[in-house]
Amino acid sequence: MLATAVAEARQGLAEGGIPIGAALFTTGGELLGSGHNRRVQDGDPSLHAETAAFRNAGRRRHYRDTIMVTTLSPCWYCSGLVRQFNIPKVIIGEATTFHGGHDWLAENGVTIEIADDQTCVKLMTDFISTNPTLWHEDIGE
Amino acid sequence: MLATAVAEARQGLAEGGIPIGAALFTTGGELLGSGHNRRVQDGDPSLHAETAAFRNAGRRRHYRDTIMVTTLSPCWYCSGLVRQFNIPKVIIGEATTFHGGHDWLAENGVTIEIADDQTCVKLMTDFISTNPTLWHEDIGE
Prior knowledge:
Number of strands of chain A: 5
Low-confidence stretches of chain A: none
Largest interface: A-B, 33 and 33 residues
Oligomer: homodimer
């Protein structure tokens, strides 16, 4: 499932954007929607990777049977999305280059798995080193 | 400033949507962007009132000089937005029909003002009583 999120991150990078991707799956492994950060491409600060995947999955009555997969630790905005919609599990590519709200989610009953994937780490390390201002804009710092 | 958010909520209701509106202002009172919940209108679950206002304000380098105004207590998703982007103040029309994450925001240094506005209360009370399923979908319950 992480491969889908990584493919989204790479697509975002190819578009000149911030290389973070995400995908929402059912617990059975069916892809509901995927997406990537669209700040640069659409001039839209509201579409982080997780919110883009959530949007692309369309309207659902509930999310109790879903898993959010993301290449990077979810920020407070995206962690709030997971908590509000009771998404029970988050698979995270890496939490080394950015440490968001996943500890808070775990404290509130969300299952968190961190893959410590070196492809994800390299995507962000390379991006942050060449685009620090854009990265800081994306996380409000 | 709350009047701008209420006008957005009324517009959403007139469109057949969920009557929650929001607006992002500078601390000096300049409107940066406003919006309303677009779940019904666009089939988009990612656009709550606050995230719609944030999107419509466009890209900004930082939010330290802004105020988020919303007709209803912000859910965890929208509270996460406020925290991640360091929006220092939130003005809330009412927190009677829904109690979101504003206590958590206050604990984390965000200034919270609750207007206890009866127009806002009536908008949501009437809406929830006639559309309970849609309302519960919007907050993931």
